[in-house]
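Progress narrative, work stream C.
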Amino acid sequence: MRQQNTPTPLPLENIKVLELGQLIAGPYCGQVLADFGANVVKVEPPGKGDAMRQWGEADRVSGDPLWWNVIGRNKQSLTLDLRQPRGQDVLRQLAKHADVIIENFRPGTMERWGLSYEELSRHNPKLVMVRVTGFGQDGPYATRAGFASVCEAMGGLRYLSGYPDRPPVRVGISIGDTLAGLHAALGTMMALHQRERSGQGQVVDSSIFESVLAMMESLIPEYARAGKVRERSGSFLPKIAPSNAYPARDGRDVIIGANQDTVFRRLCEAMGQPRLADHPDYATHRARGENQQAIDDLVAAWTQQHDASHIVDILAEAGVPAGLVFRAPDMLDDPHFQARKSIVEVPDRHGQPLPMQNVFPRLSTTPGSIRSVGPALGEHTHTVLTDWLAFSADTLDALRADNVI
């Protein structure tokens, strides 16, 4: 699981990014860019830093929260009080040298600080400003506080999550934040590509609710043209069968997806019931959808006769998609994760190996890499202000004395 040295140059190593956001959505965009080599400088309030430094479970030995090591990886930390005029002035100077600024404050905050895109791009026309919010930069909800849970509900995900006889549930991660960060990173790359052609930067507006909405498949046209409101269905998708979690003899569940005609036939053969594939109730995709419960009962009756790992082996040999429900310990022990180096060990600030998910997607000649875990608060303040702005020691001391940095 050791992180391997990655060929240089990294694909984004000539890109300078100022990350002003906090929590997850904006910083996840910064994480993606930093993973592929961008020089991401995280601007944090002096004294306390990003709230993510305190979120999540703590290390059993050091007591340090662990999440920060992932979302802050490959970044530099600069402390700067953007609520003070002198802090805002330093940011304006930094922005002249930046390719990208990421921010996820409420709309209007940057403008109140005199840090609008119009102001910053006046001195740096090539600047790309990435703005990540709950509801977007305009519209009647723009200035509302927009946490992921609220925006996931507005985007349609919450209503579909869970079982039909119970209230909707939340997905166990802040998926809306991460989706908004991914869309923001995608928008950043599009804007940088366009800049290569036009020489001009632009604003990327990535909202959480729309990032969730973008994942909602045919939900909108199904209602508009078929009058169908998609409902919660638990562990399966309506009319898609067999595709569910099926109980094994040893108490584990096996996920099986065999709704395509040819794959269903292979499943029937693996189950020792090849004639099922020609039964009029199951022979076509639509027929199986209409008889979803009956076919799930048939598959479950077979899976309950075998242990979960044996089922997976049988179906893998038969060419039927199937797998176990993985938890973190399963991932760490799994040979495919190990062969792919999907999880790597990175030295933490105490020099101890810390496992975390690798960089995705994989590029064949210039892959991203994890070069460091999340930095200490203000760890790179002196370096950034000296390298980017050539600040003298006296200037740094004065800013520090006034709690600007």
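Work stream C, second folded protein:
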Amino acid sequence: MKFPSSLPPLRLALAASGFAAAVLVTSIVANPKPPVPALNNGAEYVGEAICIACHQPQNTQFTHTLHANVFRLNPKNEQEKISCEACHGPGSNHLKDPVSPSNRSSLVGFTREWGTPVALQTAMCQSCHAGAGQTFWDGSVHATNNLSCSDCHNPMAKLSSGGLLKKPSINETCYTCHQQQRAEFAKRSHMPLLEGKMTCVDCHNPHGSTTKGMLKADSINETCYSCHAEKRGPYLWEHAPVRDNCLSCHNPHGSNHDKLLNVARPFLCQQCHGNAQGHQSTLFNAGGAIGGGGAPSTRIFGRSCQNCHSQVHGSNHPGGARLQR
């Protein structure tokens, strides 16, 4: 194998001893430079030291974050080595007029007030955070509602135990927009978020998924089965609405009725079971049959219909056709 005579003697020696490929690649391929955002109009990188000279308070906050540790201690590429400008873009144009509001376009800002388009903010984040849990961000409910990463995350300060969230916890971050769900979690029967046993992301992927509601599983039922495996079945005798959708009977976030039920029993059951020839068509309340007077019916005590039909999710007993055993 012949090598170019223009190579230095040392490289010729290395090539002769079996390191030709490594030497030639090193001599041809230069270290790649970080991408320059189009918004910055030919600006150049000035280095982290220049940024810190003016932005000392921001540096103090940033020092405690995961980003700072990665960029400064263990960068995996050239882009991460430049620290501040890896996210905000090259800063030379910013130095020319650092205080004028009209010069804000010289940097990528991550606040609503700064004015950087949301699409550009997201693109800067996705230059590192792409794939995996962020695969379905484009087209997700959050993306189509023009949310940016910084609406939920604060990469410049450690305000949460993980994820660089803008609030101390995942749940509080979600509550910023989802006030209806926050109210439901405060009801007497609720998912144990307030007790710290789970978080919103145990069921949802806030960065998008293939299902409605950004669920982490393929369907509502599959999501519920991840914790409630005993309800999965298969059953010899199936309860059709249970098989169809858990939300037919339950509110997934919280309810003022037992077991997160949408409606109190027996009225929940009577929404479907209203056979005029059977006992289930009689409407009961605390005073007995409505319109009939008399003593209270035993069918409204305890678990109501489930006092007898105890296996309401399904039964594997040979005699369980009515879900009684």
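The chain has a mean pLDDT of 84. No further action is required on this item.
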